Amino acid sequence: MIKYYLDEDLSPVISEMLRKNKVDAASAHEVGMVQARDLEQLEYAASHKRCMVTRNRNDFIRLTVQFFNEHRPHHGVLIIPYSYRGDNFRIVARALKAYAKAHADGLSSYLVDFL
């Protein structure tokens, strides 16, 4: 089953909603990683075998290329586009739940996908 790690640019309310729906999710806010650099966020997600979920497309695509070049696998990056309103937690949680169901085996290393 896919396990999510939500970047600090997403509300921890989303991870709470996901857990209530039996989706394994943690938030940067919940694990004390607020204001950590993007590299540290992705390293945290990778070390905990979690898919990184973020709105920060450009930096995490760049970091994925860096990880690939350094032979440092991660467990995927899922980009939440700005077409999903940041304050509509229920819609984002619903979409992440559906994505988790469709990707029950998780994501492959270095994969960047869009919700």
What does this structure look like?
The protein has helices spanning 12-20, 38-47, 57-69, 89-102, and strands at residues 4-6, 25-27, 51-54, 77-79, 112-114. The protein has 115 residues and is of the alpha/beta class. It has one domain. A five-stranded parallel β-sheet has the order 2-1-3-4-5, with helices on both faces. Strand 3 (51-54), helix 3 (57-69) and strand 4 (77-79) form a beta-alpha-beta unit. The longest helix is centred in the C-terminal third of the chain and has 14 residues, at 89-102. The protein is globular and about 35 Å long.
Entry keywords:
single chain; 115 residues; alpha/beta; 5-stranded parallel beta sheet; 5 strands
